[in-house]
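ok here's Mitochondrial thiamine pyrophosphate carrier 1:
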Amino acid sequence: MSARQNNTVQAGFRPPEPTKMEKFCDWLSEPVVAAFWAGGVAGAVSRTVVSPLERLKILFQIQNAGREEYKLGVGKALRKMWMEEGFAGLMRGNGTNCIRIVPYSAVQFGSYNFYKRNVFEEYPGQELTSGKRLICGGCAGISSVVFTYPLDIVRTRLSIQTASFTDLGNRPNKMPGMWETLGKMYKTEGGFVALYRGIVPTVAGVAPYVGLNFMTYDFVRKSLTPEGDKNPSSIRKLAAGAISGAVAQTCTYPFDVLRRRFQINTMSGMGYQYKSIGDALRVIVKEEGVRGLYKGIVPNLLKVVPSMAASWLSYEMTRDFILGLRPNPEEDSL
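and the structure:
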């Protein structure tokens, strides 16, 4: 066959059309999509691991100066929950929390990847500065809060409604679930606005928290990567996630306390009637001292270390698996 005939045959060759499964895998392995799904898996894994400490943190946060029911050490408080409510008490609100955290974490990781690629990178693969990662993470945090906040406020209500606060009145044998609580809040507490009560201090705390988390993780991850390697080991990724979570949470914790207080500001028997963020800060510091802004930080840090470690490791493992579905996976640090 002549060279001309050979070229004609080659020019007329058409590769087979990709199957539906191949098209799906190609879409799934897009970096932003992979980050979205991997973020959802990471959220579910991390929160389930530390659910008892998450609930205990909330019970500590919502106690004002006159409450003593959970003024205990972490171990004794966990035992109190176990004795009064059993295993269900330790996991109270976790179902709602997972329903919330899966889309929350998915949107957070996915939007971070989207903002990084489409807003902050001047060219594909550009290494962002720490400042840009901080801003990019803050934008991702705001996006995730706006999409999932109603589920967060319901999780808070579910977490405290079975706790032994004596002035909450007689508790019914069957506690309301997620949808019933959402409906009741909507009907009796101001409609749609009630589902976003406390979102201002939440955004004020989440934006810097997520930004610090992403920025610190990137810095620590690179510091723990041996010279000549592209990635650190799983143990070092766990360490990087634990450090980043602890740093970010400690710096922004007072906003988390304010968020919880505002989420239950209209619940009967709780004693909170804050008029604004400034009023809440003034009252808390006056009645409870500066320590009142850090109530629950011990179980929170005990929660954050394994939670963020599990979150980052499961995120990277899931993302790498999904990216591997593409014949030539695109590398991406986050």
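+1. The radius of gyration is 24 Å.
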